[in-house]
Design goal:
Elements (H helix, E strand, L loop, with lengths): L1 H11 L15 H8 L11 H7 L1 H99 L11 H6 L1 H10 L11 E3 L5 E3 L2 H4 L5 H4 L7 H7 L8 H19 L42
Antiparallel strand pairs: 1-2
C-alpha cells in the first residue's frame, strides 16, 4: 500500500522550473554599503580612549579658559580701582562745590548789602549834586544880575559889560553866561544900559528892570571903583553863611596865590592881558590929571 501511495505521489509531483540566482555584488546598494567606512573597534570607543585622542585639545582649552579668566579678573580689578578713584574725585568735587556754593551765597549777600548801601549813598550824592547844581545856577544868576546892576550904575565909558571884543576876550565865561541868560539884551551895540530923560541909567533888559538894588546904587553918587561897588551890593538871599565863607575863601586863596606867584588852578579863568594892546577906551580930557602946571623953559636954563 505504501508502494502504491508513493508511486501515486511521484506521478502527481509537478516538475519544478529552473530559476537563475542573481548576486548582489554588482548591485548599487552593495556598492554603497562597501563605500561606508569600517566601524571603529570597541576598544577605541571607551571614555579613556576618546579623551586620550582629544587630550591636547582639552589642555589647550583649559589654558585658554585660565588666560581668559585672568584677563577678565584683571579688567574687573582695573574697573573697580577706577570706579573707586572716580568716587573719591566726585566726593572731593562735591565738597568743593558745596564750599564754593556756600562762599558764593555769603559773597552775594554781602555784595547785595554793599550794593544797596552804595546805591543809597550814590542816590543821596546825586540828590546833593542836583541840589547844589540848582543852587549854583540860582547863585550864578543872582551874581550875573548883581554884576549887571553894578555895571549899569557906572558911567558909560567905565562900563565893562559891553560888546567890545577886548572885554569879551578877557571875560569869555561871563559874557557867555550873560548872553545865555539874556539873549535879547543887546539893544545897544556898545553898552547894555541906556539913559532916560532924567539922566538916570536904565537897564535895557526888562528882566533886570524890576531887580532890587541896594540904597547906595540908587543914590545919585555912583561908586568910584568896582571894589566900592561890590561892597555896596547886598548879598543874595539864597546864599547862606557857609557858601559865602566858601566864596570868600576861594577869593582869598586866589589872591594869596597871585601874590606868591603860585600857579593858579584852571578852575579860575582870569583874564590874560597882553603886554602891548590897544586902549579899550579912548583918552579924554576928563581923564587927564595935571600934577603941576606947564612952565616955559627959559633961555638961560
Amino acid at each position: 500500500m505504501a508502494s502504491c501511495r508513493s508511486n501515486a505521489d511521484y506521478s502527481k509531483i509537478r516538475r519544478r522550473k529552473n530559476y537563475k540566482f542573481k548576486g548582489i555584488k554588482c548591485s548599487e546598494p552593495f556598492k554603497a554599503l562597501n563605500s561606508l567606512p569600517p566601524l571603529t573597534p570597541s576598544q577605541h570607543l571607551t571614555q579613556d580612549a576618546i579623551f586620550k585622542v582629544v587630550g591636547e585639545e582639552i589642555k589647550q582649552v583649559k589654558l585658554d579658559i585660565a588666560t581668559i579668566n585672568e584677563i577678565v579678573l584683571e579688567d574687573i580689578r582695573t574697573e573697580s580701582s577706577q570706579t573707586d578713584q572716580i568716587n573719591r574725585q566726585l566726593k572731593s568735587s562735591l565738597k568743593k562745590i558745596d564750599h564754593s556754593y556756600s562762599r558764593t551765597l555769603k559773597l552775594r549777600e554781602r555784595y547785595d548789602h554793599e550794593i544797596e548801601e552804595q546805591t543809597n549813598a550814590l542816590t543821596s550824592r546825586l540828590e546833593f549834586v542836583e541840589t547844589s547844581l540848582f543852587s549854583l545856577k540860582n547863585n550864578t544868576s543872582q551874581i550875573i544880575d548883581s554884576i549887571l546892576r553894578i555895571d549899569s550904575e557906572l558911567p558909560t565909558k567905565n562900563r565893562s559889560i559891553n560888546e567890545q571884543l577886548f572885554n569879551q576876550k578877557h571875560y569869555p565865561l561871563l559874557f557867555q553866561c550873560i548872553h545865555d541868560k539874556y539873549p535879547k539884551v543887546k539893544k545897544n551895540k556898545n553898552a547894555l544900559v541906556t539913559l532916560d530923560a532924567t539922566g538916570e541909567e536904565l537897564v535895557d533888559n526888562p528882566c533886570l528892570a524890576n531887580t532890587k538894588l541896594s540904597p547906595s546904587l540908587h543914590s545919585g553918587n555912583s561908586p568910584a571903583t568896582l571894589d566900592t561897588a561890590h561892597e555896596s551890593i547886598e548879598p543874595p538871599e539864597s546864599l547862606d553863611s557857609k557858601e559865602v565863607e566858601e566864596i570868600e575863601s576861594l577869593i582869598s586863596n586866589y589872591n594869596i596865590a597871585k601874590q606868591r606867584k603860585v600857579h593858579v588852578p584852571p578852575i579860575i579863568l582870569m583874564p590874560k592881558f597882553q603886554r602891548v594892546s590897544n586902549p579899550s577906551v579912548s583918552t579924554s580930557l576928563d581923564q587927564v590929571e595935571l600934577k603941576r602946571p606947564f612952565s616955559a623953559k627959559k633961555d638961560g636954563n
